[in-house]
Design the sequence.
């Protein structure tokens, strides 16, 4: 058995938890189960092959004791049978478990949730999703701390390695490959992860603290950020070369009143900047289409639609 990767299974007395324990033991993993009722755990055929920690996830100290020495913790708990405020109980229990896991030095939390349709989400599924968010916040911090520790240890040894995580808006894809290529040549031992999204997606990753570096126009003003403008990003109106206005260098907004616009989708930095400008100028464009990429906008602008 691998002592260095000891597994904790919560909810081991349940249907999923009990079968998970069996599967982990089949893989020769060392397992500890965390249960409220020791008799239920002892009724399983695997009880003599695991460590049994008795306690309640709502109790911080017993949770911390169960998590000490654990590499990976499976969180299979729910509180739907605890009255009408079960969602509050679940959220508090998840926060307590996550805090204890971080204090105990757990490397990974695995959570079993459910598929939720945001438009028609039951209270139970909404609580499952919120529980996942509570655990994910700490799980990301754990992963980042562990990565940082490994990189610091390598630095002490005189090594230079690690991982740089970058999230960029879709318009940055035109110049980011060149920048990343140059960076990788200078730092061959550092792996680079690149996420390309619209502005809303990048801002969400920023709020969730998922990456090391974010590239976008118009950073959110409600966050305390260190930002640096490193290149211009002009936004212009384009039209087919056959359009009479295309031959002119100066055009007033009034002249565009009768024109129909193809614009980027809401949530993109380009759309946000354009909308702010239009509001400032008290101009309301006649929007024909909203598209999700600059390439699509350019292609459709070549024809009259």
Sequence:
């Amino acid at each position: 058995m691998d002592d260095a990767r000891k597994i904790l299974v919560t909810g081991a007395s349940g249907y999923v938890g009990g079968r998970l324990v069996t599967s982990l033991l089949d893989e020769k993993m060392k397992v500890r189960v965390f249960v409220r009722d020791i008799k239920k755990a002892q009724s399983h055929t695997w009880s003599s092959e695991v460590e049994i920690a008795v306690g309640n996830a709502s109790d911080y100290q017993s949770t911390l004791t169960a998590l000490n020495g654990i590499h990976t913790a499976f969180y299979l708990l729910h509180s739907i049978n605890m009255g009408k405020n079960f969602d509050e109980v679940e959220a508090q229990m998840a926060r307590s478990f996550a805090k204890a896991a971080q204090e105990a030095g757990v490397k990974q939390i695995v959570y079993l949730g459910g598929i939720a349709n945001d438009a028609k989400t039951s209270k139970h599924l909404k609580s499952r999703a919120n529980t996942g968010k509570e655990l994910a916040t700490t799980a990301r911090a754990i992963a980042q701390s562990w990565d940082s520790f490994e990189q610091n240890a390598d630095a002490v040894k005189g090594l230079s390695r690690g991982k740089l995580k970058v999230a960029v808006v879709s318009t940055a894809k035109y110049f980011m490959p060149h920048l990343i290529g140059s960076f990788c040549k200078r730092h061959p031992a550092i792996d680079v992860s690149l996420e390309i999204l619209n502005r809303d997606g990048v801002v969400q990753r920023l709020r969730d603290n998922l990456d090391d570096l974010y590239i976008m126009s118009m950073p959110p003003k409600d966050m305390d950020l260190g930002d640096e403008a490193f290149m211009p990003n002009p936004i212009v109106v384009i039209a087919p070369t056959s359009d009479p206005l295309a031959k002119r260098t100066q055009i007033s907004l009034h002249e565009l009143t009768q024109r129909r616009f193809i614009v980027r989708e809401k949530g993109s930095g380009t759309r946000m900047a354009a909308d702010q400008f239009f509001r400032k100028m008290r101009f309301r464009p006649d929007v024909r289409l909203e598209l999700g990429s600059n390439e699509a906008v350019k292609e459709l602008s070549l024809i009259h639609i």
Summary: The chain has three domains: 2-154, 160-215, 244-301. Strands lie at 2-10, 29-35, 51-54, 72-75, 108-111, 162-169, 190-197, 213-215, 260-264, 286-291.
